[in-house]
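Render this sequence as a predicted structure.
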Amino acid sequence: MHPDLPFSRTRTLTLFAYGWSAVGFERQAHRWNALLDHRGFDLQTFPSNVRLLGFDIERYADRLAGQARHSGWSAATSTHEQFGSLVASLLAERMGWPGTPVEALLACQHKLHARNVLGRVAPEANLRCIPLEVDFGDPIPEVLDYPLFVKPVKAAFSVLAKEVHGRVELEQHTRFGWAEQWVIRRLVEPFERVARSRLGTDQTAHGLMVEEPVRAPQYNLDGYVFRGDVRALGTVDAVMYPGTHAFMRFELPSRLAPAVQARALDVARRFLSAVGFDHGQFNMEFFYDERNDRLTVIEFNPRMASQFSDLYLRVRGIDLHAVALALAHGMDPAELPLAVPVGGAAASLVYRVFAPGQSCPQPTRAQQRAWQERFPGALLFTYPKSRRAQARDFKWLGSHRYGIIHLHGRDFADLRRQAEEASIWLGWRPPYEGALTGWSPAAPTLRPAS
């Protein structure tokens, strides 16, 4: 334990900390004796997500500010894209705590506004885009040139992001039932209310936008800003399922040339400075097309990519969740002690099916325990869903994600060998193009617990 770390002596509020962040912040509680309180609700599960009904971010931040005075909180942080990051910024503003400026966070999350800013300060890294100014279900204008990449102005996790090749395909992509439309609007409206009053833009966050499509490898620049100084932590490579925009795995360290990573950091500096982002973590998603030496920004996330925190810890000894707590307490993350790396390469392996009826077996608890004994230190996440929920995944995401594994190895070759073995134990297809020729769902599955 390091008693000099401010978050090991005071109480911190973590907001909407589910999934990766639940694991990451729990790690801080054990490693640094961090005193953490949790608030928020899970958007993915019932009945927790019923709280979407009538949810108001400003009122929620006000209520937390009232509780802070008797709860002993001295800082707040969140890695949650949809609500948590904005609530944390609003609460920090109300309490006078260190935090990302509200307007800067809004400027990143409003994708049309961010494109406008990027076009001014880094036009070489911007993509042509226009708002799709139609309500869900309305006829699509006939003047659009295809192919196009369509995505929501405000969303997370690549929801409803898709390349379309014609008007009929775009119309089918924007058709939703009343229940789906209700969910979409309830997810966006809390952000919309704050953006209208604070961002100074007349472009609504409701609806979709279209961009020129890019076919090039995708990367993630991770970093933070402390007292206006923009610092990179590293770059994670994103590998897609062939012929799709669906993530197959994320890998660290990056194979991208250091000079290109430096260019990405320069673009990030210009953008973040322009929107007033002088404190907090960020993740910049970008393409790099080596054939024409073109780097283009996909979007800026004003938060850490929490799925990557474990990868950085394994390979670089950097814990992104510890960085989040340090920033929340006004501490320079550069002063954090590093952990001892355990591998030379690490990956987040994403398991998907792309059509109903494809095999996605889920291990029992006993099988998961046996798997964990065989692969100590690995992380396993399973996502069992009903057929109805899977159908919504296919509509909104184009695939159903049923599992994720985190592993490390001595190098990428060793990592792949372990990934293939760990996958076969679960009866899952290894997420490598061309992996295990002849593999089928009938391959040996997880051994029963002894």
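Summary. The longest helix spans residues 178-198. The longest strand covers residues 229-240.
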